[in-house]
Amino acid sequence: MHTVESWPFFAACTLIALASAIWTGPRARTVRARLLLIGVVCLGAGWYTLRIHERPRHALRPHTAGEPLPVRVRGVVIEPARADPAPSAALGRFFRVEPTVAFTIGLTESWTGEDAQPDRAGGRLRVRVPTRRADADADWTPPRPGELVEIDGLFQPVRPAMNPGEPDRRAWAAQDGLIGVLRVPNADLIRSLEPQEMRTIDRALAPIRRGVSGVRAFARASLDGGLPDPLSSQAVDSTEIGRASGAETGIALGGAQLADSRILQGRALLGAMLLGARDEHLPQITDAFTRLGLTHLVAISGFNMVLLSGLVLLGVRLTGDHGAWESVIACSVIAIYLVVLPVEAPSLRGGLMVMAFIASEAGGRRYDRLTVLGWLAFALALLQPLDAFSPGYQLTFGVVAALLVLAPRTHGRLFGIEVLGIQRRTMPVGRSVEARAERLGMRLRGGAWSLWSGFKLAAASALTAWAIATPVVVYHTGLFTTLAPITTLIIGPLCSLYIGTGYVVMLLGALWPGEPGGVIAGTLGVALDAMGIGLVWIVHTLDAVPGATFRLPPISAALAGALAALAAWWLWRGRLRDPLTLGMSAACAIWLAAEVMPSRSLPERTPLRIDMLAVGDGTCVLLRSADRAALWDCGSLHPGVGTRTIPDALRALGVTRLDTVFITHANLDHFAALADVASVVPVGRIITTDAFMRAVSDGAAPGAPEWQHAAAAFHTHMSASGLNVRFETVAAGQEMQFGHARMHVLWPDERVIEDLRSPARGIDPNDFSLVVRLDVAVTPQDPLGGSATRSLLLTGDAARLALPALLAEHPPSGARHALRAEVIELPHHGSFVEAAVELLRRTEASVVLQSTGPRRASDRRWRDAASAYFSGDPPERSGRTWLATAHRGWIAVEIGRDGGIRFSTRTSR
């Protein structure tokens, strides 16, 4: 991010305001209005620059080494501690990523290195403490908001986008004032200081922050108090409960465990819907909501605020007609609710929007709701500039505007225009049986008519919202939900009842904790659990319907806008026999086909392309040649990589299907993410080794090593999930065609391995790692340009035993020996061994690719050992390039038809 000054925009805004004030020429009113508009634009640009591009004046000194920076900081706690569970993954129980307790502090001072005196610091810092370390000290409690603390930890700044399809978190962090994360290994490193050392403003704000935190804790306790006691089955591993498909999980669970898992998911859903809480069971159900196009029902958004305001107004009107006080009470309740909730954009947008509508209706004048919505959207875009580019902002205001304008029109076109003023039959009077029967019949018919009218209105609204929202959702996520209007009609009322009952339980727990309020709340709590089980079952069942969701390649913002406009036109006045409507529809269809249905083939000038994704400690390499796409490994030690990072990157690169995935060996960081990726991107086959399949079979036995258990769990998940992926094995000496490339399997040769293995060494899966060479034919432009073949050597985790044997099996002979390659994947993520140095020299590669996290990215032994190979520093000076994902992010290498090798990295884009 470049530092940009905001003062020129503010200066221009000031000058324009002065010019507007003193302008007295002809058409003064029109000129002043235009000057005012220009001034507002300059004000918005200045505010955007100030929030996003200008770095804080007193922030922690940035570092670029990649490794965490040891620091000591002092600041005031501004947000309470909350559980921050580890990301969910299909094989999550095998990851050594523990959940944390996290809270936010506002920095005042910091120490780095050997600094004796603190530096002034500013901005917000997120502090994370491992839950296990925090629980080890029974006397430790997280600091409360308003406390001054001093903390020793490891500082990591907000990292840039490392992969395609990944947003730049630095801009969003700058908008929120967040400068990074402080990881604290032990709770003892957090010390509370005396209030006298606080700044005056922090001392004044401390009671307010403590009060807000207390209200939030009281609201959560009120909700929990109305629910039954926690179940013993909360120990069920949440990672085993995946997307429902018959058994609702890739690993068989008993009926009791499955019911308990639904209770846990239901409670997590209730906490998210009412209080914005997040726990480890929530992703299992929210993912299904997202695939069904119902994310707005989970996040606290306008839907929740409308429901809350309706309940409040109903309760107030049951006590009589209070006039304008009804609106005041409803707005006050929503304002208090916003204080109780965590400060998040969806809840803030929804609450302000509902309050604005209520206030405009009660203001004594008939304000146009669309105008009110527009001014509110403009104001929020000024306050939070980046939100205007977020799907939540666009869907909130776009869908609400469509409901205000288009929903009545859609209702009329679907069900006809209801004629008002028709005289209805008068309710009969009298106590006769006939009169009573007629009154009952009229009431039943009236109720049925009201239900039918409500259903028609809901159907028109659901169809309108789906039509307008779909292009926006496809643009941001690639999800096309076919059943969203139907699922909205089914799940929307259930969620309304679920949320409404939750509000009642929370209110009873807060205002009437004793008898009989506690008994009523407890009874409703049992009903809430029953509703939660049913809601979770329905959502998972609908999510498992074939064709409910499709994933599309990326589309442009212009196409998304055109499709939204076309949807609005169809809802407003589009007809099948209208030439204009058909012409616009055909144009958009051709445009859509041109963007989402391009040829999978690479350009003829690029016979082979390699995309190495930045997955931290792990490997994921996308190989493409002609119309073939494959992954070389798909794993990481970070559990969230398979659910978001890799699928988003593949979509951004235009890959919608993988013909093949190669699993080099049975280490978790090379295959674990595939269990999640395969549920999003179809996979044709998995090619691996006999050693991996032996690990699968041995992992089912008790007492097997954990890496074998992981391999067995992965195979079971892939087999039970209904993905129809077949497993194939290869060994040294085999060859196969991959697009324009010829693939040669060089390792493993198990006969050689058994001859070299010592009885005391045991089994190391790295010894059986797959090693292949891909050759592509090229036509060098220069007649003296060397060989007409360019090669890529992929080595997996071949290391101490495999590399020496591989070097011995393939001695150098001739210009194109078996290990000669222009591009090489550095073995074992760059772990330093002498055989790897010799392999690097033997290949004479011009581009070295290293997939690794920061831990292995700066090993100086490589530079010392390979000094003869790298003649310059940096190595680019020697004509050879070493690219590490920890430093460069995503790396793309293209082998051209002319024999040239071109590369680019995420940091160079």
Distance between the termini: 12 Å
Name the average pLDDT.
82
Largest beta-sheet characterization: 8 strands, mixed
| Strand composition percent | 15-25%
Please tell me how large the radius of gyration is. 31 Å
Number of helices: 29
List the strand order in the largest sheet.
15-14-13-12-11-10-23-24
Helix content bin: 40-55%
Which runs of at least 5 residues are low in confidence (pLDDT < 50)?
Answer: 231-256, 871-877
What structural class do the secondary elements suggest?
Answer: alpha/beta
Q: How many beta-strand segments?
A: 24
Structure explained in plain terms:
- It is a single chain.
- Strand 19, helix 25 (802-809) and strand 20 (823-825) form a beta-alpha-beta unit.
- This protein has an eight-stranded mixed sheet. It has a seven-stranded mixed sheet with strand order 16-17-18-19-20-21-22. The protein has a five-stranded mixed barrel with strand order 1-2-4-6-5.
- It has 29 helices and 24 strands.
- The chain is 46% helix and 16% strand.
- The protein is globular, with a radius of gyration of 31 Å.
- Helix 1 packs antiparallel against helix 2, helix 9 crosses helix 10 (325-340) and helix 22 crosses helix 23.
- It has 909 residues and is α/β, with parallel strands linked by helices.
Write the layout of secondary structure elements.
Layout: H1 7-22, H2 28-53, E1 69-84, E2 100-112, E3 119-120, E4 124-130, H3 131-136, E5 148-157, H4 169-176, E6 178-183, E7 190-192, H5 200-225, H6 255-275, H7 282-291, H8 295-298, H9 302-317, H10 325-340, H11 345-361, H12 369-383, H13 391-405, H14 407-415, H15 433-477, E8 479-481, H16 484-511, H17 517-543, E9 549-551, H18 557-572, H19 579-596, E10 608-612, E11 618-625, E12 628-636, H20 645-652, E13 658-662, H21 674-677, E14 683-688, H22 690-698, H23 706-720, E15 726-729, E16 735-738, E17 741-747, H24 750-756, E18 771-777, E19 789-794, H25 802-809, E20 823-825, H26 834-843, E21 847-850, H27 854-857, H28 860-865, E22 881-884, H29 885-888, E23 891-895, E24 901-905
Parallel strand pairs: 4-6, 12-13, 13-14, 14-15, 19-20, 20-21, 21-22
Antiparallel strand pairs: 1-2, 1-5, 2-3, 2-4, 5-6, 5-7, 8-9, 10-11, 10-23, 11-12, 16-17, 17-18, 18-19, 23-24
Helix pairs in contact: 1-2, 2-4, 5-16, 6-7, 6-17, 7-17, 9-10, 9-11, 9-16, 10-11, 11-12, 12-13, 13-15, 14-15, 15-16, 15-18, 16-17, 18-19, 22-23
